[in-house]
Design brief:
203 residues, mainly alpha
Length: 203
């Protein structure tokens, strides 16, 4: 049986209209104050200086909110973030999500590598592997989507690669309907590395 199959739901998050409104109305000012404790890992303005930690500036509020609640519920595993998120109320999570979304997204260093294979995956996908183009969910410029699809443009390449590898191995499993686990298992390690580099330099 594939490692990503689980009897439990991948996430407790249910996107009801009232939940979307709740996150949309997060308090940016309160989120800014709460984010002071996040700066050591994620940067003062949400742009991480360390590749292992994600930049959160410009991230879609719904995605950030979902991740915080998944950490709090133990649906996404990271000892440090589990502890942090468990200390946050749902309102705190919405406020933080609103603050990070309000910030200008990171524009990280470019790469001199040949990223043409990754660009094909973003633009066209891979019909032989039944892989849809990345842009159908993450947008042509990597800005993410309204529901819980993350923005990837400017994200730390190291973090994006780490995330895709965790999905591929099944060690991260809070993606609803196993979407990213199914996709990542079809990607080679080289393709994953190139995708990380490509999205890092995307504006």
């Amino acid at each position: 049986m594939p490692s990503f199959v689980s009897a439990e739901p991948a996430s407790n998050m249910v996107w009801m209209p009232e939940t979307l409104d709740f996150v949309k109305n997060g308090n940016v000012q309160k989120g800014e104050q709460l984010a002071l404790s996040c700066a050591s890992c994620h940067g003062e303005k949400g742009i991480s200086a360390m590749g292992m930690f994600p930049s959160l500036a410009g991230q879609t509020a719904n995605y950030t909110y979902k991740q915080l609640r998944d950490y709090a519920d133990g649906k996404r595993d990271n000892p440090m973030m589990n502890s942090v998120a468990q200390g946050l109320s749902e309102q705190d999570s919405a406020d933080l999500a609103a603050w990070f979304q309000s910030l200008p997204a990171a524009q990280n260093k470019t790469s001199n590598q040949d990223l043409s294979k990754a660009q094909v995956l973003v633009d066209q996908g891979n019909g032989k592997k039944i892989l849809p183009p990345c842009f159908t969910c993450h947008g042509t410029s990597g800005k993410g989507k309204r529901m819980d699809i993350p923005a990837l443009a400017g994200q730390q390449a190291e973090y994006t690669v780490k995330t895709l590898m965790e999905y591929k191995k099944g060690t991260r499993h809070n993606d609803i309907y196993s979407r990213m686990r199914v996709i990542s298992k079809q990607l080679s390690d080289v393709e994953i590395k190139q995708l990380g580099e490509l999205y890092q330099q995307m504006k």
